[in-house]
Amino acid sequence: MRNRCGLKFLSGVVAAVLLCLVMGGCQKEAIDSDMEGHWELVEYTTAADGKVHVCNRIYYSIQLWVVEIAAKQSGTPHKPVIGRFEHEENGNVRMRDFKGRKATSDDKKDVTTEFEVVKANGKELILKSDYATLMLKRF
User: Fold this and answer.
1) I need a surface site. Which of 1, 79, 125, 126 has the fewest CB within 10 A?
2) Which residues are paired to 84 by β-bridges?
3) What is the pLDDT of residue 127?
4) For the stretch 107-135, what's the b/e string if a residue is b when 16 or more beta carbons lie within 10 angstroms of its beta carbon?
5) Among 40, 50, 67, 64, residue whose Cα is nearest residue 135
6) How far is CA 40 from the centre of its chain?
7) Residue 26 neighbours by CB distance under 10 Å
8) pTM for this predicted structure
């Protein structure tokens, strides 16, 4: 009787360990852990005039192929937007297909912005487009 109880207990423990391993192995790995995560937009510099714009409580959340941009308690009426975040083969990243509010240009076309990754070290993220350079810090 003792052998059967011990065998049942051991097989239960083995089953539990295997279940934990299987469940833990189903998580998606980051495409680039230096870019993915939660970021605060500290400032951006517009390319046309070189003017630095200090930001207050604007956040980017990047996970796999998704980016969310939200102004939290910043006094702006803008609602969060969610879009695609794509890693290009040339090392650049692209943001497009935003949902949440209509992200269109003056000629009513959907906005797609390609950024050169100037710096991505897990603590700072600097992205440069033809419009502006974004300076973000991880929080």
Assistant:
1) 1
2) 66, 96
3) 95
4) eeeeeebbbebeebeeeebbbbbeebbbb
5) 40
6) 11
7) 6
8) 0.70
Among 80, 85, 139, CA closest to 117: 85
Residue-averaged pLDDT of the chain: 79
pLDDT at 130: 94
How far apart CA 41 and CA 92 sit, in angstroms, is 19
Please state, in angstroms and rounded to a whole number, the distance separating the CA atoms of residues 37 and 114: 19
User: Which amino acid type is present at position 37?
Assistant: G
Pairing of strands 113-120, 81-87: unpaired
Name residue 18's amino acid: L
User: Which residues are registered as beta bridge partners of 119?
Assistant: 126
Of the two residues 94 and 78, the one the predictor is more confident about is 94
Q: What is the mean pLDDT of residues 20-43?
A: 74
- Which DSSP string do the residues of 56-70 spell out, in sequence order? SSEEEEEETTEEEEE
